[in-house]
Every structure is written in structure tokens, then in C-alpha cells.
Automatic annotation (TrEMBL), chain A:
This is 1,2-phenylacetyl-CoA monooxygenase, subunit C. It comes from the Bacteria. Pfam families: PaaA_PaaC. GO terms for cellular component: cytosol. SUPFAM superfamilies: Ferritin-like. GO terms for molecular function: monooxygenase activity. InterPro entries: Aromatic_CoA_ox/epox, Ferritin-like, Ferritin-like_SF, PaaA_PaaC, PaaC. It comes from Shimia thalassica. One of its GO terms (biological process) is phenylacetate catabolic process. Keywords: Monooxygenase, Oxidoreductase.
TrEMBL record, chain B:
It comes from Shimia thalassica. GO terms for molecular function: monooxygenase activity. It holds the Pfam family PaaB. This is 1,2-phenylacetyl-CoA monooxygenase, subunit B. InterPro entries: PaaB, PaaB_sf. Coiled coil: none annotated. Keywords: Monooxygenase, Oxidoreductase. Gene3D superfamilies: Phenylacetic acid degradation B (3.10.20.520).
Amino acid sequence: MAVDQEKLLQFLLRQGDNTLILGHRVSEWCGHSPILEEDIALANTALDLIGQTQMWLGYAADVQGEGKSADDLAFLRDAWDFRNVLLTELPNGDFGRTLLRQFLFDAFQSVLMGRLMKSSDETVAAIAAKASKEVAYHVERSADTVVGLGDGTEESHARMQEALNYLWPYVGEFFASDDVDAAMAEAGIAPDPASLREEYDALVGKVLADATLTIPASKYAHKGGRTGYMHTEHLGHLLTSMQWLQRAYPGCEW
Amino acid sequence: MKNEWPLWEIFIRGQHGMSHRHVGSLHAPDAEMAIKNARDVYTRRNEGVSIWVVEARHIAATAPGEKGPLFEPSESKVYRHPTFFDIPDEVGHM
């Protein structure tokens, strides 16, 4: 049974837009990190994410079949076309919030990539296999930093708890399944995200406990990013900066 | 109050069979983070297969002022170099 190509495209855009938007956010730290070592580490992470984006959006462009490239999808779509979860577009805040957001994302990716490596779609499986090694390193590093800062000084702990209170309502969107996910699950291309929640909570719960941080009790979850229904006001500002060159100088290459 | 993280000396093995070589130093709060930072700072262009880190304060070193007594006496002892043996051609590169 051939899978609905429009739904496959939506699935691929969700993957590629997550890594693109978070990659751009993380790249904003370049030259601004608290120390040289973290500056390079964050730049490496951003580059890994953008490298994964090239694979996801490259495949998305193939499936779309309109002769576009990954670059076209990254730089010439508008805010309402993006399918990233809201978490990835949130402003960096302080260093602690950036690393906590990174951990919450890395943990999800580490669970998801393990499943996508067994995808019935060979290209998806190959992309996941390549990304999984980067993801394994990212989640180890961000988890260590979250524990270090959470279980650190009084000030770093307070900042991390504040960051968790701010970010946690954005975690639920990872698991908000819809008909695109149902079609992917039926075709064996990707798991239903809702089925990943237990594994995610176990991983995240352990690290946050080690970090002496308390997960907020509220189950409220912001949504609207992965469906494109409504992004936060932050995405438009991010795109203005990220897409500026291609908008001002269409087709410019170097 | 001390705000600076300790300094770590970084040693990288470029390929299997080679020895670890000192490549530089960096700051990190503990050994695990020092390894991660070394991975990010010194192996991002595929330079290594193994990383050692050691906190700089644990390295005992010779003092520059002792250079004379320590090293000069060996300058005049050419007989310590095994260059006075004839190596048969068949042995090849040693």
C-alpha cells in the first residue's frame, strides 16, 4: 500500500523543521556563550541539527516533487508553512534555559530516532541511523549540564526551576498525534508519538530528579506548531533573521 | 570565592597504534565535562580516536631554571646514540 505522499511530506517537514528552527536558535549563541568551551559545543550542536535538516528537508523536497531543494524549503516558506513544535522556536532565555530546552528536545529525539531506524521507509531509516549518533551525544551532554546547573548553586537551581516551569507546558506537543501520525504508524514509517510518552517520561524524569528539579503538576500543553495551526509570535522574528539574505537577494549563492 | 573552573590538559590519540599527544588545555567543572569539552573543541575535524584528560595541577613538571643541570650533561654524550653500529641492508628501515 502506497502511503499518502502529502502526509509523508507533512511528517518529513515536522522532522526537518524541528531541527532547522532549533538549530537556528542554538546558533544564536555563537560568540555569546559564557565560556569558549560551551560556545564551541553549542555551535557544534547547531551544525549537527542543521546537517540533519538538510537530510530531512532534502527528502521532503523529493517527496513534494516540485523541483525544490532543502534550501528552498528552509528559506522561502513563511511562518504558517512551518511544522516545528513550539518548543523549538521559543527564545533562548539564559544559558540554563537554552540547555534545558535542548535536553527536553534531545530526550525526545533519542527515543524517536531509535524507532525511526527501524522505519519501513529506507530513506527515513538511513537518516535516523546517521542522526542517532549525534543525538546520543547531544542528550548526554545536555543532560549532564541540566544536572550540573539544577543541582548546582542556589541561583543556578532557581534559574533552572524557572526555566522548567516555562518550558514544560511545551513538552506535551511532542506527543499530540493526529491523522498524519496515524498514517505513518499504519505504514510502519514512524511510531505514533503518543506511544513514546512513557519512555520519554522515564528518561526525563530521572534526569530532572538528579537535577533536583520539580516537574510542574499542570498537564496543560501548548500546541499548534507541528500542525501549523498557530505558531508563537517568536517564529516570525526568527525567520526574519534566518531568511533575510534569501529574501533580500533572491537566489544569492556563495 | 573561586569562580573559575579548573584547567585540564588534553591528550588525543590521532589513530590506533599512535600514542596520545598533548593538544592543548581547556576549562571544565569535572573530568566528564572535560572529556566532552575536549571532544567538542579538539576533535570536531575528525582528529581523534581516544581522549585523555588530566587536571593541570596533577602534572608535575621540570622547572625552566633547572635546565642546565638536567639536560646539558647529555648534550656531549654522543656515544649514547646507537649510531656506531653497521646495520645490514637486509634489515631495512628500523
